[in-house]
Amino acid sequence: MRPAQVEIEHFDVIVVGAGISGIGAGYHLQRDCPDFSYAILEGRSDLGGTWDLFRYPGVRSDSDMHTLGYSFKPWTDAKSIADGPSILAYVRETAEQFGITDHIRFDHQVTTASWSSHECRWRIRTQTPHGTVDYSCSYLFMCSGYYSYKEGFTPDFDGREDFEGEVVHPQQWPEDLDYRGKNVVVIGSGATAVTLVPALAETAGHVTMLQRSPTYMVSMPDHDVVADTLRKFLPDRVAYALTRKKNTALGEFFYNQTRKNPAKITKKLLDGVRKDLGPDEVEQHFTPTYDPWDQRLCLVPNGDLFTALRSTAASIVTDTIDRFTTTGIRLQSGDHLAADIIVSATGLQLVTLGEIAFDIDDVPIDFSETWSYKGLAYSDVPNLASSFGYINASWTLRADMSCEYVCRILNHMRSTQTTICTPRLRPSDHSMTARPWIDDFSAGYIQRMLPHLPKQGDRNPWLNTQSYAADQKLFRRAPVDDGVMKFS
């Protein structure tokens, strides 16, 4: 006698991840596709994604909240550069306000996603505290971010086992780590290091920022004067929309200037740091070897890093590591940095679509062999989209548009009574020159992952543009049925 089959719960749409992107997806599905059933599968026990995971001292946004916030939910706090707990509260409030929390299945870690051409649906397997649970959906929307939640990236440091103090990565910051009065070395020069150093310097004995090479930094106030003024005279929603438009335009203009006039922008950025630290420090520690926005700029709110470096609480060293010792780090120059705690702020470990094993009719999908369709879907992969923000602007700007576009696709399928949508190369596309999924960006965390990511082509819609203006045309004005996205 055959065992009874377990009924698998089915949804029109399954969203993977309950961070900023996933909560945004829930809102857009409810607003634009109200007749579609959906669930959000979240591997952790709480929502918030990045803003729930990272708990290191001083954790904050590295872009303004008028663009990192949702288009539909005004950011009304006074600070436009916000701390992590405030951002998490904002995401939670959004989920509660719009009834999205009720759709989240917490502690559901997605492990596999299998497309059945016969059934025209995805079968999703999750691991929960109570065992394996399967779901199915007609459309799968990946909102799980771009990095591994298991661990951050840490190079293999010679002699690490010899060090007698603690070595921590910001992604796994211990709640009970006591750094008061101690010597702390922070390895790194990116956004995390720039955030950690002034925060640790408030109570540590001394904090040393050890960088292999300099990063471009720009000091900005954590309040937006224009936003503060607009809120005095206009409703929150109107003031927020105007500020968001202003900041988006200024950000894109500045980025374009770094591509057209890199020498001019370099001078402007370095002159700003010279005002805070003087020419000698800039020459030695703040003059990168690349052009602005070849890697992400670091935001220094209210110049807090520079304030710490001007005091005796913090210092910066530009050198490479020879090895860890029992009491600190020996540098290639021969100098030694004494440390009680070493923080490896060395970046993220990027992954492809949430570390999930995908297959189509039992044939595994190698996403590195696919072409990126508008930066959100993949050639020959049906009924699947993923949300990925900008590397040169706020994540949510693109996440919002991606959600809108997915809803356009879903509504088009319903109105045309089709069930499958698949990006397919046109005959003329087969001769395209393959380019990296993200072009013109040399940051190590991206370069390490590029071989595993999809390719982009040399024409629309196979471009993964990093331009908000260009994406508005692609996502909001271009027809859904464009001859490349095939509906059947």
Distance N terminus to C terminus? 39 Å
CATH superfamily of the largest domain: FAD/NAD(P)-binding domain
Strand element count: 23
* CATH class annotation of the largest domain: Alpha Beta
Task: Indicate the low-confidence ranges by residue numbers.
Answer: 1-5
* Helix percent band: 25-40%
- Radius of gyration in whole Å, from Cα? 24 Å
Helical/strand content category: alpha/beta
Describe the largest sheet: 9 strands, mixed
Count of runs of 4 or more consecutive helical residues: 13
Oligomeric state of shown chains: single chain
Number of domains: 2
- CATH architecture of the largest domain, by name, is 3-Layer(bba) Sandwich
Mean pLDDT, rounded to whole units? Answer: 93
Strand proportion = 15-25%
The coarse overall form would be globular
| CATH topology title of the largest domain | FAD/NAD(P)-binding domain
